[in-house]
Amino acid sequence: MARIARVEVHCFRYPLKTAMQTVFGPVDARPALIVRIEDSDGAEGWGEIWCNFPQVGAEYRARLAALVAPAALAGLDVTAPTTAFATLRARLHRLSLQAGEPGPADQIASGLDIALHDLAARRKGVALATFLGGAPRALPAYASGIDSRLAGEMMSAARAAGYRAFKLRVGFVKSISLSAMAAAWMVLGASVKLLVDANQSWSLDEAVALVAA
Fold it and tell me: How far is CA 174 from CA 53, 94, 169, 171, 185, in A?
């Protein structure tokens, strides 16, 4: 049975020319944290670890993943990753408990789980969608990363580039959320889709009221 032979963690950061204003504060770079798993037969799988916030989160999670991933993955069957996530979470539970940080531990477990599924699919020579029981298909793209201060300008440019769906980050300040959505409709019109992401800032009652508004 093939076993995991190597784990690599790759941390990338792309600086923005102009810092983008978000509901979490200014963002001056786009980070990405990619993990690669190679098995004893030379097959590989790739996954992504969420790392957007805080701004130093990518580098922190990269060092943490490099430290804990080998032991967390030890002995896992690369051909049958169905229960891998539960196993990874259990093995990282002590870390998340003592550090008081379930987020980074779960995000690392998730990235490793993605890589394990990708590896299993590649070993079978099929697309990951097929391995998971579905089929590859085209998916519509939407424009995101829209600075609330430049929403009109950025959405107009995205629409000119061919986008017909747009996502705004809202929440935390309810009045700003509603005014931002109203301004977006003025710019985009009713022929496009407008998505909003409250980033966990609304209670159920607030969500119901704001959706109605």
Answer: 22, 38, 12, 6, 17
